[in-house]
Amino acid sequence: MAEMTFIQALRAALSEEMRRDPQVFVMGEDVRAGTFAVTTGLVDEFGPERVRNTPISEAGFTGLAVGAAMIGYRPYVELTIASFCYVAMDMIVNQAAKNRFLFGGQAKVPAVFRFVEFSRSYAAAQHTDRPHSLFMAIPGLKIIAPTTPRDAKGLLKTAIRDDDPAVMFDDSTFWTRRGEVPEGDYTIPIGRASIAREGRDVTLVAIFTLYPALAAAEELEKEGVSVEVIDPLTLVPLDTETILASVAKTGRLVVSDMAHRTCSAASEVAALVAERGFRSLRAPIRRVCTPDVHIPYSPPLERQIYPDKDKLVAAVRDVLSA
Amino acid sequence: MAVEVQAERATYVEMLRRMLAIRTFEQKAEELLNRGEILGSMHSSIGQEAVCVGGCMAVRPDDYMTGHHRSHGHPIAKGADLKRLMAELLGRVTGVCHGKGGSMHLADFSVGSLGEAAIVGSSLPIAAGAGLAIKLSGSGKVCLAFFGDGASNTGIFHEALNLASIWKLPVVFLCENNQYAITTSIKISSAVQQIAHRASAYAMPGQVVDGQDVLAVHAAVRAAADRARAGEGPTLVEAMTYRYGEHSTRLRLPLYRSAEEVEAWKQRDPIVLFRGWIVERGLATADELAHLEDAVKADVEAAVEFAHQSPYPDLDSLWDDMYADPSPWRERPIG
User: Fold this and answer.
1) Band of residue B1 on the pLDDT scale cut at 50, 70, 90
2) Among B136, B160, B321, whose Cβ lies nearest the Cβ of A105?
3) B167 contacts in chain A (CB < 8 Å)
4) Is A127 a catalytic residue?
5) Which pLDDT score, from 0 to 100, does residue B2 have?
6) Average pLDDT of the residues in B309-323
7) Residues A254 and A167 in one domain
8) Contact A139/B322, CB-based, under 8 Å?
C-alpha cells in the first residue's frame, strides 16, 4: 500500500499500463506538460511518440484514437474539461460506440476517453458540465466513475485493458483526496459497485457524491440512523444487483447525483428500484441532484446548487419519516 | 519482357473487371431496391467506378481503406467478396457485417476495408488514426481515405488533414469530386472550386486528376502512396468525376443538373473509355471482354443467389458485438 492522491493514482495506472503494453499511448492537448497533472512526466519515460500533444482538435484526435484502436492500439485520450465533450461527440457516439456492432464484430475500439467534471471550479456554465448521464444513453460505451485514489487506479487499469470503448468521468474536487492505493498490478472489475459504508435503515446511492454521502451517514449515525452508502463506480454496466440487494435490506432509497436531475444517473437508479425493487420499498424514492439550471459563476451561488451533506441528511430524514 | 507484359495485362483486365463488377452490382442492387427487397438508404457509385478502382488498386491488398455513404464501390474495388456484400445489403446474417451495417456501413477487414461511414466527413479522422497506428507500428502500410466534395466543407476535414500533416501520417486523401452534395453545387458551397487547392493549407501536395480515367487515378494514388510509405506524409488527390444517378437510389428530386451536363459526362464514361483503351492497345479482344462482362454478371447473380439462400439474423444475435462480452446486457429482457 502507498498513500497517494487521486491524480497520482491515475498517473500510476497510466505509467504501469504503458510499461506493460507497448500498444498503450496517450493523446490530448498539452499532455506532455500535463495541464491537469495526470500525464505530467510520462513523456520522459515513454517518449513523444507515445505521449502525443495534439492541436485543439477534440473531434479530430478523438477520431484518430478510434482509428488507431480499430487496428490494435489502446489509446488513452485526455479530453480534459467535460464541457468540451460535445465537440468530440460524433466521434464518440457514431464511431467509438458503434463500430464493433456496425461492422459485425470486425472492429474493436479499446480506447479510454477521460472527461473531468469541474464542479465548484467557479468557471461558469461552459466549463462545469457533468454530462455522464448523457453518455449512459449511448449503448456500446462503458462508463467508469471512480471517486477514490484506489478506485481510480484499479478502474483505469481495467478500462485500458478492456476491449470496449470506455469513458471515464471524475470530479476535479477528488483530485487532492489522498488514500491508500495497492501497489503494482491492482485492478477493479468494471461493473461492480462498492459498498462504501454498511447500514440498515436507508440505502444512499451516491453518484459522484461519495464524500458528502459519507459525511451525511456519519452525522445521521449520531441520531441512531444507519445509512448504507453505495458508490456505483461503474455507471455502465450498472451493478444493479448490489443496489437491489441493499434496498431489499433497508426498504428505503435516496440517490444523489451531480448531474442535472432530468435523465440523470440517479433517475436510472430510481427507475431500476421502482421497477425491480418496488415491493421492498417502505417509502417513496428520493433523488438529490443538481437542479435543471446552468451553473452560475458567482461562487456563493454555485456552492449552493449541488447535492451536499445537508441536502442528503434532509433527504434521508424525509424517507425515514414517510 | 513477355512476363512483364502479361502481368500488366492481367492488372488492366482486373481493373476493368472490378469497374464492371461495381456497375453490375449497383444495377442489381437498384433493381432489388425497386422491388422492395432492399430497404433503407443506398447511394450508387455508377459513373465513379474509375476513382474507386484506380484508388484501391494503387494500394496493396493489405493496406487500409475508409469510405463514405456512397459505399459499394470502395469495398468491391478493394477486393471484397460480392456474395457477402450483397448479403449485407439484403440484411442477411452472412453479410460482411452480419446484417448489422447495411449498405452505408460496409466493411471487410480481410481486405483492409475499415468501414464506410454515413456521417459525411467522419471517416477522415478514422483514416488518419489508422495512419497513426501504421506509423507507431512501423508496418509500412498506408491508408487510403475516400471522401467527397461535400465532406471537404466539414470541420472534421480540417482537423483530420491538419493532424495527418503535422504528424506526417501515411494517408492518401482521395476526393471523389462529383460536384454535388445532394443537389447543392460546389459552385455555391465551396469557396474554392478545386478541393486540391485546400492541400496548401495543410502543407501537403494537392493534385487534380481526371476521375473518369482509371489509369490517371491509379498513377496519382500510387505516387501518393509511395510518398506516404517513404515517411513524407499525406497527399490530397482530387479526382473529378460524376454520379449518373440521384444522390440516393430512392430519391426523385426536381431537376438540379442540366440534361446537357449529365450527357456530357456520360460521353466520357469511365468503363467505355478504359475498355476502348484496352482493345486499342491489343491487351484483350472485344470477345474476351464480352466474356469478362458475362463472368461479372454471373458473379453478381451468384451473389444475389447466395444472399437469397442465407437466413436473416435471429433475435438472439441482436446483442452480438454490442460489447466484447455482451452477456450482462443480453440477460435483460427486450422491451
Assistant:
1) very low
2) B321
3) 52
4) yes
5) 66
6) 95
7) no
8) yes
Residue of A91, A92, A95, A106 to mutate, testing the B interface (most B Cβ within 10 Å of its Cβ): A106
Q: What does the pLDDT average to over B70-96?
A: 98
Instruction: Find chain A residues with C-beta within 8 A of B156's C-beta.
Output: 59-60, 63, 90
Buried b (16+ CB within 10 A) or exposed e, B106-134: bbbbebbbbbbbbbbbbbbbbbbbbbbbb
Residues A297, A226, single domain; the answer is: yes
Q: Which of A181, A202, A229 is the last residue of a domain?
A: A181
Q: What is the pLDDT of residue B251?
A: 86
* CA–CA distance, A90 with A66 (Å, rounded to integer): 11
How far is residue A215's CA from residue A220's CA, in Å, rounded to a whole number? 9
Counts of helices then strands in chain B (DSSP H, E): 12, 8
- Identified catalytic residue from A127, A132, A260, A294: A127
- What was the ipTM of the complex prediction? 0.95
Q: Is 80 exceeded by the pLDDT of residue B333?
A: no
Indicate if A224 and A293 belong to the same structural domain: yes
A 58-77 residues with CB < 8 A to B = 59-73
* A61 chain-B contacts, CB cut-off 8 A: 125, 159, 163
- Amino acid type, B218: H
Q: Which homologous superfamily does the CATH classification assign to the domain defined by B2-313?
A: Thiamin diphosphate (ThDP)-binding fold, Pyr/PP domains (3.40.50.970)
Contact state of B117 with A95 under an 8 Å Cβ cutoff = yes
What lies within 8 Å, CB to CB, of B178 at 6+ separation is B47, B48, B148, B149, B241, B242, B243
Please report where in the chains the cell 495485362 appears, as a residue: B9
**Chain B closest CA to A213's CA: distance in Å?**
28
Tell whether A191 is within 8 A of chain B (Cβ).
yes
Residues with Cβ within 8 Å of residue A286, at least 6 apart in sequence: A253, A254, A255, A315, A318, A319
Which residues of B are less than 8 Å from A111 in CB distance?
Answer: none
Rounded-to-10 torsion of CA B245, B249, B254, B256: -40
- By C-alpha distance, the chain B residue nearest A54 is B163
Record the cell numbers describing residue B258, joined without a space. Answer: 442540366
Could you report the per-residue pLDDT of B176-218, keeping only the tens digit for each? 999 999 999 999 999 999 999 999 999 999 999 999 999 999 9
Other beta carbons within 10 angstroms of residue B89's beta carbon come to 29
- DSSP character for A295? P
Domain enclosing residue A212, as ranges: 194-321
% of residues, chain A, pLDDT over 70: 100
d(CA A264, CA B91): 36
Q: Of A22, A28, A12, whose CA–CA distance to A154 is shortest?
A: A12
